[in-house]
Amino acid sequence: MQDIFNAIEGLSAVCRAAGADIPGEELKALQVGKVAEEAGEAMHALHGLKGLTTCSDDHSWAEVQNDLTGAVIAAMIAMHYIDPEGWQATFREIFHRRTRRGREALAV
Questions:
Q1: pTM for the predicted model, two decimal places
Q2: Which residues contact 12 (CB under 8 A, 6 or more apart)?
Q3: Which of 63, 60, 39 minimizes the C-alpha distance to 50?
Q4: Is residue 53 classed as helix, strand or coil in its secondary structure?
Q5: What is the mean pLDDT of residues 88-94?
Q6: Residues 23-53: pLDDT tens digits?
Q7: What pLDDT was estimated at residue 14?
Q8: Nearest-CA neighbor of 38 among 7, 13, 70?
Q9: CB-based contact 34:78 (threshold 8 Å)
Q10: 45, exposed or middle or buried, with CB in 10 Å at 0-12, 13-18, 19+?
């Protein structure tokens, strides 16, 4: 997991440099919006996979997974933007709390 955290911090630095002229609070909001954009792309790919779009684009489960991964990366970068020092601990705490029922089910 630490490799992923390190990669996110590196990507965050690249993104921050690209948005250096944007105020911090606005950059945070834009990054949260990026999460929604990536999730929307995953949904669009799913609709295309199921033939539910008016465009003639062919989609695959691999494309859905690609867009879902983009949403996860965007979310982790947003968490880093919000709290550069404590985001890893926050992520771990929330992940642990939100996966409690799964851990309990696996222990049975």
A1: 0.90
A2: 77, 80, 81, 84
A3: 60
A4: coil
A5: 97
A6: 999 999 999 999 999 999 999 999 988 888 7
A7: 97
A8: 70
A9: yes
A10: buried
